[in-house]
Amino acid sequence: MIPFSDLRTAAYCPRKLYYERRSDRNPPPAVAERRDLAYRYEELVDAPDAAFAGLPTEVPPERYRRNLRRARDRFDDWAAVADPPRRDVFLSGKDCRGIAHKVVEDPPRPSLVSPGSPPENGVWEPHAVHAVAAAKALAWERERPVERAYVEYPTHGVIREVGLTTRKKADYRTAVRTVETLDGPPPRLQNREKCDPCEYSDECGVKTRTLRSLLS
Ligand code: SF4
How far is CA 108 from the centre of its chain? Predict the structure, then answer.
């Protein structure tokens, strides 16, 4: 049974998954603090600027409120996402298992909370793969289709919907195959956007932006 986190990492970089499996790194405490924002939307959506002091938000209060209000106007599930009936739900499907940070009902949908920043549109590919895995596991448990999921970026007050399209399901299956066949270190990526922030870049030996600037 494949953990959701392995799929997410495989979608980011198969070689990173290889390193992750050999290390015992735990997420820093800042990750939990950032995720906690996802349970404070009702409080923050109309909060004054002063209420944001000391919070790990990444955008100014005005923009944060605007992002949350947009989500409130857009999603019928807003109330359940803001105050979920079920939190940190362990899901176990046919191929994968792991935690969905929230599960909303009628119809059932999982929601995943990222501590990072959102892309301009949609969600990052590893998050889409994670969302498909969680939706499939929920569907397996409930014995009914689950066609959508949410990915939240609470440091920005952004909530995005992920539909289980043919393309996203294909990306999911590719990630499953990558995890199942991982045996030895896969080739390095040549991708600055992914390698520069990667915590294994030293071990991996790729030239990150910092190293490149020292060498140039
Ligand atoms: S530095 Fe790049 S190639 Fe190496 S593990 Fe990280 S993302 Fe993958």
Answer: 18
The range of the structural domain enclosing residue 208 comes to 186-216
Question: Ligand 1: distance of its center to the CA of 198 in Å?
Answer: 6
200 lines ligand 1 (CB under 6 A): yes
pTM above 0.90, yes or no: yes
Residues whose CB is less than 8 angstroms from the CB of residue 159 and which lie 6 or more positions away in sequence, other chains included = 71, 75, 81, 150, 151, 152, 153
38 lines ligand 1 (CB under 6 A): no
Verify that 84 and 138 share a domain, yes or no: yes
d(CA 55, CA 77): 25
In the chain, how many domains are there? 2
Taking only the tens place, the pLDDT of each residue in 50-61 is: 999 999 999 999
**Banded model confidence at residue 118, pLDDT cuts 50, 70, 90:** very high
Nearest CA to ligand 1 atom 4: 204
